Amino acid sequence: MNITLPSRDKWINPIYHEHIYDNTPTQIYFGGSSSGKSVFLAQRAVIDVLEGGRNYLILRKVQRDCRKSVWNEVNKVLQKLTGGNGRSLLHYVKHNKTEMSITFPNGYQILFGGLDDRERIKSLVPEKGVITDIWLEEATEFDEEDYKQLTKRLRGKSDKPKRITMSFNPIIKQHWIHEKFFGQWDESKNKLNKEDLLILKTTYRDNRFLTKGDISRLLDEDDPYYHDVYVEGNWGVLGDVIFTNWEVRDLSDMQDRLDRSCHGLDFGFSSDPAAVVKQYFDKSSNTLYIFDEIYQTGLTDTQLGRKTKQMIGNDLVICDSAEPKSIKHLKDEGVNAKGVKKGKGSVETRYRWYQGINIFIDVKCVNIKRELQLHQWRKDKYGNSLPKPEDKNAHALDASMYGCEEYWAKKDSWGW
Ligand SMILES: Nc1ncnc2c1ncn2[C@@H]1O[C@H](COP(=O)(O)OP(=O)(O)O)[C@@H](O)[C@H]1O
Ligand SMILES: [Mg+2]
Fold first, then answer.
1. Which of 123, 160, 154, 151 is nearest to 49 (CA)?
2. Average pLDDT, the chain
3. Would you state the pLDDT for residue 4?
4. What is the CA radius of gyration of the chain?
5. CA 200–ligand 1 middle distance (angstroms)
6. Which range is least confidently modeled, 32-36, 56-60, 284-288, 407-411?
7. By the 8 A CB rule, do 300 and 324 touch?
8. How many angstroms separate the alpha carbon of residue 204 from the centre of ligand 1?
9. Which end of the chain is more exposed for a tag (fewer CB within 10 A), N or C?
10. Is the Cα torsion angle 205, 208, 212, 216 positive or negative in sign?
């Protein structure tokens, strides 16, 4: 097959041009959202496999997040490119949707996966040659141990230089990625280019493919933290985080202890995700174990019901009670759902209770982990913390707290 790629100006954002064939072993692309990071890295993967005979492993922390993100991104790139006779490249590659792999006409491959699918990831080998590239999309979801294991994976002989690439929004300055790689980073610059490490910071200003509408939607953000991280692409600095009483653990061997469940659900649809958490509370050690989560926008009540049923079976789930109609839909799908009791002071009570327990979160629950990392007290106009949580980063968290109702709800205060 004969493929001539279009001239790079036509389809690749200029700020990334000099990194199309960059062989620096460790590469970091971070910054604000919509700066073209994901699209560029998908484009580069396609170019590398086609022209360079390289094999890619593209990872998200959690396998189920691949299809909607990196898998789609790569396929969009393939769709836009055309081979000799004007047919889209999509027709020339072989997709294996269950294995999540794309095989190019030259035999080289892009493999996709999530670290939760550990056995498969460990045993993955390309059909031809070795894996030369690993790209961690949303790399802040990974922990340092993941990174170490993956770099080991890249050891071994190859005639092509090996690379590991990370892309992410810089959610919090205390992150291990900041600690490990940003020692020589100069905040006033947008690039660090050393022999073994490339860091490139980009923002929406570097993405010439955005429409005016895209930009004004992005700029319509008045929260200073969000503006700084997601518009300007700076490392997030948080004020008064509410919860620090949690740890990430591999809980996969513990599922059989789930006999005293306390699952919770928070509704959401367009801008806010619906969130469901599968969890267990151990009273004797005052410890909450969070095993699994659903966290998704755009789900209808029926879809949410099915997914919930799949995750928790016939167990009870305590739901946000503001939407009785949705609870009824869940019940129609066979979910054992019940509304949480809300009353005066219930927010305060449950936050205080939740602050006083120990929380272990399974490695695959990246969304509740992010919320716990970021959820803050509201501020007054002078920047002082108020005794009220902010209205953000609390979807999975609300679900989790609802689920624990029987432990925090006080009979006396609301008369039940
Ligand atoms: N090279 C490109 N060609 C066409 N559209 C692009 C290109 N790069 C980015 N875009 C558009 O900009 C949007 C944001 O880019 P994306 O790569 O998702 O940003 P980031 O990963 O930095 O948040 C994409 O959804 C796409 O619509
Ligand atoms: Mg992205």
1. 160
2. 93
3. 78
4. 23
5. 16
6. 407-411
7. no
8. 9
9. C
10. negative
